[in-house]
């Protein structure tokens, strides 16, 4: 029997999010998944492709890899910049 578990769940079959959990109100935006880290009050968001940031609130303009020929994409406030090789 495995003793591994994900913190923040309660109920007979561990299918309900604990109201004390930082993920209870789903702070992650744009389809991001909230993951509990170490304690119920500490969390991280796993963002969907195309979004970034602590709460997945920022568009990741580099997700589509717009820079060609090996250029490096850097997200900036107004979109992205490519650094050519």
Automatic annotation (TrEMBL):
InterPro entries, per database record: EGF, Notch_Cell-Fate_Det
Cystine pairings recorded for this chain: 28-45, 47-56
A Pfam family per the record: EGF
Stored SMART domains: EGF
PROSITE patterns referenced in this protein's UniProt entry, alphabetically: EGF_1, EGF_2, EGF_3
Domain EGF-like: 19-57, 58-85
A Gene Ontology biological process term: establishment or maintenance of epithelial cell apical/basal polarity
Gene3D superfamilies: Laminin
GO cellular component: plasma membrane; protein-containing complex
Entry keyword set: Disulfide bond, EGF-like domain, Repeat, Signal
Record-given protein name: EGF-like domain-containing protein
